[in-house]
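Work through this protein:
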Amino acid sequence: MDTGSSSPGGFTVHIADELEVYFNEVAHGRPIGFVGSLKWKPPTDVYETDEAVVVHMDIAGMNSGDFHVELADGILTISGERLARREGKRHYHAMEIQIGPFERRLRLPAPVDPDSVHANYAAGFLEVRLQKLPARGSGTHSVRVE
């Protein structure tokens, strides 16, 4: 099912994806704005271990220096641009590999140490690993009254 509209420029606007992000943010009481984007969204997994939040993005055909990774206010933004491979004149029979600028904005599921962000690109996958901050206020604490 097509969830967006194609344009002559070769990119697809995924309105359903933008609405999902918008309603997810509103449902959690932290709206960050709704702006239709002309950027495509690579498939991305976000998971949590005992020590870290890990973001795993499927994006072949890039170099490690082609990515911009930024963390601000609990939102991880990964962006860049995948360029078309040039091999002379082509007559396409199918064109499913997306090219052009991309961006993913992900609200992290746990507080993380901003100084711990580590990104690695290998075998067509970008992995961003962020160390979680220790939970605050857990357990029972007694206070001596003076």
User: Anything to note?
Assistant: The CA atoms of residues 74 and 108 lie 6 Å apart.
